[in-house]
Amino acid sequence: MGQDAQAATLERIDVSDPALYRDDTWHEPFRRLRREDPVHHCPASPFGPYWSVTRYDDIMTVELDHATYSSASELGGIQITDQPQGQRLPNFIRMDPPQHTAQRRTVAPIVGPKNLANLETTIRERTAAVLDGLPRGETFDWVDRVSIELTTQMLATLFDFPWEDRRLLPYWSDVAVANIDAPDAPVRSNEARMAELEKMADYFLELWNERAKGEPRFDLISMLAHGESTRAMPRPEFIGNIALLIVGGNDTTRNSMTGGLLALDAHPDETRKLRDNPALIDKLVPEIIRYQTPVIHMRRTATRDVELGGKTIRRGDKVVMWYVSGNRDERAIEEPDRFVIDRPRARQHLAFGAGIHRCVGDRLAEQQLRILWEEMLKRRLEVEVMGPPVRVYSNFLRGYRSLPARIRA
Ligand code: HEM
User: Fold this and answer.
1) Relative to the CA of 323, which ligand 1 atom is closest?
2) Would you list the DSSP string of 107-173?
3) Is residue 258 helix, strand or coil?
4) Is ligand 1 within 6 A of the CB of residue 280?
5) In 10 A of CB 124, how many CB atoms?
6) Is ligand 1 within 6 A of the CB of residue 224?
7) What is the pairing mode between strands 318-322 and 50-53?
8) Are the C-beta atoms of residues 342 and 267 closer than 8 Å to each other?
9) Of the candidates 164, 145, 154, which has an alpha carbon nearest to the alpha carbon of residue 124?
10) Whole-number pLDDT of residue 363
11) For ligand 1, what atom is nearest to the CA of residue 289?
């Protein structure tokens, strides 16, 4: 093969294909891009032309320059897929300052240190109840019984959401982020998605109106209903922000709980290390999150012509930061493809992003995962993975539909 043919092949690499993540075959194309063309232009994809940023340091550069790399909904938002025209749902992850700053500040206290300390006992009791309720010596679905249940309970607490209806939350989350072309998508068109999200909005509006009338309380709905920058949101922005908080707190932590079990099952030496020294949980948790990287990418739009990694990105171009790749960048992380539960700088990863949009719920996510593994160790639960997981068909969220598991009796 001549040099031209090789270059042509490189140009044709399109890492936006959701099948790469469903089949877990994304490692090699990204390894190649990081090595040969770290800021890579894909001229034609189902999502139009886009730039891929694949190295850790370049992703940081984009993250920290929000004036050049915008998150604004009007420019297309934060996913490689543009929001469909006429169905834009702005929310603060799809905003630039100053709007972003004000809205983020409204909800941030719910995941601040004081509230996290208050939540510790509740999370522990619920985690204990979920673990104690699992069958022994019998195969069950870890995703449904543990990951979804624990994150849904948490979310219901943050919203002070009617407990008996809590499974609506993961359903709406699935609807909000569904790839409508996926075989198991809960909605098959953007119109169907909007119709479901309108129902979600109606449900939340009732809770909202009640809480807006009352004294401010410490739950997400009350905080938004009383917040200066959020209390009079137009309906699309209302839907957008509710969906953001549901998706943010739901899929990501859920998939880390499943990814953590899978990683430990595949690395018995690391599991032994953990059993011998439970204090390693503090490093295990960020390593699980890095290794899983539940958010595959975030997208920005260039607001001016700019150089990155020797390439010229034009104003209006789509720029995609591939966190899955940055977290496996051998230039920034030693032996990145190994799962190592006692890494020296375990929290140095990109799974939570960086800069002004860095995940607001990062500490809560870590706390939930820490408590889950503390309670498992306390009970000496030996959980075996009984078969391969079913992975999600998506280029945005790296997750699991199901994972058969069994607790040794
Ligand atoms: C392991 C779990 C989690 C992961 C991997 C994760 C990942 C991320 C990422 C990558 C971003 C975008 C960062 C950027 O653009 O630089 C983000 C933003 C966000 N996350 Fe998380 N997240 C997790 C858990 C949570 C939880 C538990 C909540 C809420 C309770 C949450 C709420 C949010 C919100 C509201 C934003 C938007 C922040 C902003 O735009 O300022 N996330 N998250």
Assistant:
1) 10
2) HGGGGSHHHHHHHHHHHHHHHHHHHHTS-SSSEEEHIIIIIIHHHHHHHHHHHT--GGGTTHHHHHH
3) helix
4) no
5) 16
6) no
7) parallel
8) no
9) 154
10) 94
11) 1
363 CA distance to ligand 1 middle (Å): 10
Q: Kindly list the distances between the CA atom of residue 312 and the CA atoms of 40, 173, 309, in Å, as whole numbers in the listed order.
A: 11, 37, 8
For residue range 309-335, list pLDDT tens digits in order. 999 999 999 999 999 999 999 999 999
pLDDT in tens, 125-183: 999 999 999 999 999 999 999 999 999 999 999 999 999 999 999 999 999 888 888 88
Ligand 1: atom nearest CA of 93 is: 40
Ligand 1 site, residue 350, Cβ cutoff 6 A? no
Q: At what angle do helices 149-159 and 235-266 cross, to 10 degrees?
A: 150
For 275-292, what is the HEC assignment?
HHCHHHHHHHHHHHHHHH
The Å distance, Cα 3 to ligand 1 centre, comes to: 42
H-type alpha helices, 181-335: 190-213, 220-226, 235-266, 268-276, 281-292, 323-326
Residue located nearest, by CA, to atom 19 of ligand 1: 359
Q: Is 58 in the pocket of ligand 1 (CB under 6 A)?
A: no
- pTM of structure: 0.94
Q: What token pair was written down for 335?
A: 């032996």
375 lines ligand 1 (CB under 6 A): no
d(CA 245, CA 365): 13
Tokens 């990951």 belong to residue: 147
- Residue 388 DSSP symbol: P
CA 256 to ligand 1: nearest atom: 1
| CB-based contact 323:62 (threshold 8 Å) | no
User: Which ligand 1 atom sits closest to the C-alpha of 355?
Assistant: 16
- Ligand 1 centroid–CA 128 distance in Å is 25
352 lines ligand 1 (CB under 6 A): yes
